[in-house]
Amino acid sequence: MSVNQYQFIRDGLFLNRFFGEGKRCFGALGKSMVNGRLSALGWAIMLVFIVITSERSHAQRRVDLGGFLGASYYLGDLNPSVHFKNSHPAIGGLLRYNISYRWALKGALTVGAISGYYPVNEVVLKPLNTDTYRFKRTMVDLSGMIEFNFIPFDHPFIENSNLTPYLTTGVAVTQYRRYEVDESGNNDKSVFLLSLPFGLGVKYKITDWIRVGAEWTLRKTFVDDLDLTTSQPSVDPSDPYAFHEAVKSHNNDWYSFAGVIVSFSMFDRKTSCNAGYKKF
Questions:
Q1: Could you tell me the pTM of the whole model?
Q2: 76, 124, 165, 276: which could form a disulfide with 52 (CB 3.0–4.6 Å)?
């Protein structure tokens, strides 16, 4: 029981509130409390009820509305393994719905660019020729994801629940301009692709209304043309070092977002008389 709760007990306003709640939740027992006839069992139930009703003053916020600021980058044949190489600024907005202290659903709209070039010094394979090749794409990413908190986040009866790491995964639809020749002769066409995002993050409750965090997610796509800019490139961006041809393998392109999140919380979770026992 916190110091604030003891102060409320000494305050007649809290007693009025408590006995009013007691009538609603405990019926006849609540009436006997109002009349002053408190047995040992009555006092015990009263103490438990005080703890339970404290959930109302620490209720988890249902909805978080916030923004994302960070970086985006590409992983593919022109950058096989170096994370954050050729990063570009990324910005977005998000809406998070807290299902429980462990689980949350999140929708986000994020915009960022990806780029790459040939040859890449970090690649151990020798370039096939002396030509150079570059590309750059703007990605508009709409994602729906689920989050799992390792620690019940913002729980009123668990110490140090203001900070938690989490895992996240889901599905995303991304708009970008793909090189594509059609009957009208266009070679830069707006298309949509499906990707599978997954990653990790951490979030921290600063106040009842403000949260901050950091998140890093990778997007696995099912295409291998994010780096294609012409029908006859001097370098084949899908296999610039002839590695996949040699080993008879194939890999699709990836892209990633990493950055910080600032969000504002609203809409308290509705609680019942036994809500304090629901820790998860």
A1: 0.69
A2: 276
